[in-house]
Batch of 2 targets.
Target 1
Amino acid sequence: MIYADNAATTKMSDAALNVMIQTAKENWGNPSSLYTHGQRAKEIVEKAREDIAGIIGADRSEITFTSGGSESDNQAILTAAMLGEAKGKKHIISDTFEHHAVLHTLSALEKKGFEVTLLDVHENGIIDPAELEAAIREDTCLVTIMFANNEIGTIQPIKQLGQICRAHGVIFHTDAVQAVGHVHINVNEYNIDMMSASAHKFNGPKGAGFLYAKKGIGLSSLIEGGSQEKGKRAGTENVPAIAAMAAALKENADKTDERSAIVTKMRDRLIEGLLAIPHSVLNGDAKSRLPGNANLCFEGIEGESLLLLLDDKGIAASSGSACTSGSLDPSHVLLAIGRAHDVAHGSLRLTINEETSEKDIEYIIESVTEVVERLRSFSPVWRDLITGKRQFVL
Amino acid sequence: MALYSEKVMDHFRNPRNVGVIEDANGVGEVGNLKCGDIMKMYLKIEDDIISDVKFETFGCGSAIASSSMATELIKGQPVEKARELTNQAVAEALDGLPDYKMHCSVLAEEAIIAALDDYEKKSSVSDLSDK
Ligand SMILES: Cc1ncc(COP(=O)(O)O)c(C=O)c1O
Ligand SMILES: [Zn+2]
């Protein structure tokens, strides 16, 4: 199998897997217990906290362990909303192509009287800092903008966006689930107040993540109970997963530049090869995007059938078509960057990593080209396009 | 567990009766690009029997397999019989479809009805012009 769906999840690294198994075997004590066996588990959790904090330029007291990206997003947003509400500030700024972990949390707040402004992400999938500045109001309590988009991989000008928030005294949260472990992030340099991350997107285990919250931001807890995580996240810590998350992040952080160079080169060849297919388009900015992300639309075909035929060829990929998600609408991300419905149904996301070979890239290009051609051969939409009954969009 | 049954995958990978019939006397197209599945059915009807049928589909695996199976079920059948084809029958013949994919099989049923309506409209027009 050629795995080209690393934005969905990644394979655990050997380092992370070994730490996870070893911790589960040897350090299975409860970190809240006072005897040595429990305290050793506690040490492991605290060491992981310190390591992770060091990698992102934070203090260990600013890291809270969670179950992953969704929980971190929820907690960050609800925290800022509660802090804002206490001061009578109930306006939040975000954008149209956030992950549903952010968008659905915002919808829930709207039902509770908050007002939400969603910034345009433009055709290139990048937010204009001036538009953020113009949207900030007296009563804005939070700006939440993702570091990198999970579908089209575009990277936002986080440093500038953060700077604008600082200047206006507004909390800035970023969902960096797709970016942590793949690009360098220093929370101070980037003016980030809160940041969500998820281990399974950077070769760590599923069900583990963290939330960075700058000193002075008192987190509201989503889960009440024991006093773990300074009372901000009750529940006995998932010690093996936390240790493995830190191991995975450490390894990725050490190799970021080296990996990024190799993967970017392959990604660019992949994009070039796929754009040779007639009536295709790249989704999102060609430069400001994650090293491994290629996302294209092909006119006249539908994404799920493309994925199934690629699966037959041993290629694991994903699509933003409606029929893959079980809803009637194609991906909100593709609609947000202005793709028409018909084109959005024919999308393909390939997210490669350093384990992908140059031979794999050529095989993917060849396979996608063949499959698109095959599907077009019996598509009534394609027939209408080539006979001039319908206008090409791409 | 696989998303689709073996039967669905077989019809998806090797769709039966794909293509167009140039001298079709009943053509029906249903679906829309907003929801992402479009089917076009071509019928050749002689003496009230569907002597030939072909289809073209833009859509997911379930839509393509449903179109393929639907054409197999009506080929060689009298028009009356073809009108009775239901999406449940198509889905059953495919050894079932996931719940959220049933709407794709509904399109197959609708495409056939649309093609039969087209045939009847055309033949009633020619009946009139005969008189
Ligand atoms: C941008 C983004 N945010 C949040 C999440 C949710 O993360 P998790 O699966 O860890 O809850 C994902 C994962 O799909 C993501 O890509
Ligand atoms: Zn469908």
Target 2
Amino acid sequence: MASELIVNGHTYEVRAPVGASLAHVLREELGLTGTKIACNEGHCGACTVQIDGVPALSCITLAHAVRGEVTTIEGLRDHPLVDAFVKADAVQCGFCTPGQVVSAAALVAANPEPTSEEIRHHMAGNICRCGTYPRIEEAILHWRG
Amino acid sequence: MELLRPSNVDQLDEGVYIHGGTEVVPLLRDGILSGERLVDIRGLVPRGVRDATIGAGTTLAELEVDPQIPAALREACRLAASPQLRNMGSIGGNLLQATRCWYWRLKYPCRLHGGDTCFAREGEHREHAIVANDFCASAHPSDVAAALLALDARVRTSQRELPLAELYHVPDEADRNVTRLAAGEVILELELPPVEASVYLKAMDRKKWSFPQVGVAAARAGGETRIALAGVAPVPWLLESADALASGDEWATPLPRTEWKVPVARALVRRAVAALG
Ligand SMILES: Cc1cc2nc3c(=O)[nH]c(=O)nc-3n(C[C@H](O)[C@H](O)[C@H](O)COP(=O)(O)OP(=O)(O)OC[C@H]3O[C@@H](n4cnc5c(N)ncnc54)[C@H](O)[C@@H]3O)c2cc1C
Ligand code: SF4
Ligand code: FES
Ligand code: FES
């Protein structure tokens, strides 16, 4: 079944069969490997992308069922949060980081000055096994530099 | 596999219905659900809140911040799952989520899968049920369903209207289904009667993103208090009265490693009733 996918402003034709996840299509078909797959079952947030600006888990989203525009970490390359994460040293192994930045970008778009409590509520779906949470919080608190 | 996108109920074919997919996609991948036809029902299930009517396609994220929604339901949504899952997951899908019993998820041929053993009763059951747990000891994982049950919600489907309590069925030998939805039936809307005060309290493994160990919803309307629990029975559980807990522990039949849930439930019920004022 042919299906179109808009990712970071470009339109693609999905070739994978129905049932393929958005994460799989992004990585294997479109070569957008910034989106990570860790648990592949909706538990960790590594695969977070935005659909029409709203964070969603691409590993449990069917590529053919996507109706909005997808933004991946590649589409957020120039977002000030990227620098903020570097400055706060909010990265250890880095595997969770793309998902963290994608979630955080949606948060600051809706709420440019989130409190620590708001950050903790909105970022709770992005697990960091290296435990960089305090620095992620710091990066988001000071995302505008 | 094909994916259909009907835009009204008349065009609805049978198949695996999918809304947000947070439950369906993992179950398909694990082979617990199967079928050649997926039906994306987002085009025909209403979304949004109008007065006391909630479209079954409304996401938990939308409900958690909606001031029209009673506190118990808002809080149940806010404390459920993770932000991304709340963005994706619909309230209709939440009511129909399957058990998190690990034996069931790992496809052990247990009673709920049609076999003749409840592996949890004999094996690992720390998270399991403390009431109505004789046949299947699974614990219903929906915070949202407990809140809606306390709020005395009604469900409108493509075929009928019914009180939420009647959507559920404690599985037994004769009928192993946990819900009574017919094949081809979809939930369209939920209707909330007026309520004076309501609250939802949840005991969790950690502070965020955990299924309810025990969730307690309480709502007061017309001088009556309704209390419903998540995580204690194979279905969302309506308590006959708060006094049932105060007078002793006979109401519960915990398994050896679910005894800890009994005092937790009692404490949360007491706090919830106190919070109603
Ligand atoms: C990791 C994880 C953690 C979670 N934690 C919690 C928690 O703490 N508390 C809690 O309450 N919930 C929790 N959930 C459940 C989550 O809220 C639900 O999975 C979600 O709301 C389901 O909605 P959906 O639209 O994605 O449903 P889908 O996955 O699309 O569908 C779920 C089921 O409902 C059926 N269905 C969906 N909509 C309709 C309809 N309108 N009519 C008829 N059938 C329908 C589908 O066929 C399927 O059987 C968690 C889920 C996950 C994956
Ligand atoms: S508790 Fe229910 S779902 Fe779990 S093993 Fe027993 S019968 Fe199966
Ligand atoms: S890879 Fe999608 S949530 Fe873990
Ligand atoms: S930096 Fe390693 S998992 Fe987060």
